[in-house]
Specification:
Elements: E1 2-7, H1 17-33, E2 37-42, E3 55-58, H2 63-70, E4 76-77, H3 80-84, H4 88-98, E5 111-115, E6 126-129, H5 132-144, E7 150-154, E8 159-166, E9 172-175, H6 177-180, H7 201-215, E10 219-226, E11 232-239, H8 247-263
Parallel strand pairs: 1-2, 1-3, 3-4
Antiparallel strand pairs: 5-6, 5-7, 8-9, 8-10, 10-11
Helix pairs in contact: 1-8, 4-7
Length: 264
């Protein structure tokens, strides 16, 4: 089987270029051991790439990447449509439609403003405001950058938990970033050290696999806040994270769904 692995553009891998490449490389090595013909393709080169793969595994997010992949007529994991649905505004609507636990719109502990038209590309795409007045200032700053599509949610007090999953397999892991210090923009520190409040991890896995199906992706990650009473709300959900905390296990699970695709 000829497989293309599409490498994410650097603009969509803030502080994570090496980590994103590492998970692709881990998957590539496993596929090669299964006698797959594997080619790693930077997504900027995809519009000019010739050839006819039988399967594509993609971390790409550029609009031209997604449009090209739609034309191939072969299985693509994650699908272009699913990746497009991970844009914050679309995602929020889908989360509401399937009943995913979400943060409230109003609260007394501050607000989060996030660009809604695409995945975050830098610190300014996800900002915290301590008050409604400061939120208005942050919205104005975002609009001055040309970003008119954004979402607002109230800050939720509790444990920040990062989760990773591969739909269609048993793979699901979660971690507390304040335990190991791995961070992208240091926003994880806003909630302080984790208390490790008890919660139903199997319910979270079921909910996130359900959301992934509604979004249209198989390889996913995200963040939730677990409150002291064990309830949780999902504050982020995205296509194909770097899996840096569980890379080898994730690569095994990704290859598992490739094998299922080969048998169809």
């Amino acid at each position: 089987m000829r497989v293309w692995l599409i490498q994410r553009a650097e603009r969509y891998s803030p502080n994570s270029v090496e980590k994103d490449l590492a998970i692709l490389s881990a998957v590539a090595g496993r596929l090669q051991r299964l006698d797959c013909e594997v080619e790693l393709v930077p997504e900027e080169e995809l519009p000019h790439r010739e050839g006819s793969p039988q399967l594509v595994l993609t971390m790409g997010r550029l609009p031209e990447t997604l449009e090209r992949l739609k034309t191939l007529g072969i299985p693509v994991i994650n699908s272009s449509e699913g990746i497009e649905n991970c844009a914050r505004s679309r995602l929020q609507a889908l989360m509401e439609s399937v009943g995913t636990p979400m943060p409230p719109q109003e609260g007394s502990d501050g607000y989060w403003l996030k660009r809604g038209d695409a995945a975050a590309q830098g610190r300014g795409d996800v900002v915290f405001a301590e008050s409604k007045e400061q939120l208005a200032e942050r919205i104005k700053e975002m609009e001055q950058r040309g970003i008119k599509d954004y979402t607002v949610s109230a800050h939720v007090v509790g444990d920040l938990v990062k989760f990773y999953g591969v739909r269609g397999t048993d793979f699901f892991r979660y971690y507390y970033p304040t335990d190991d210090g791995q961070t992208k923009f240091d926003d994880e520190q806003r909630n302080g050290p984790a208390h490790h409040y008890a919660f139903d991890a199997s319910d979270l896995q079921q909910q996130m696999n359900h959301l992934a199906g509604a979004v249209g992706i198989d390889i996913y990650g995200g963040d939730c806040i677990v409150r002291e009473d064990g309830s949780y709300c999902v504050i982020d959900f995205n296509d194909w994270p770097s899996f840096s905390r569980c890379r080898e296990e994730a690569a095994d699970a990704i290859v598992e769904i490739v094998n299922k695709e080969k048998k169809q």
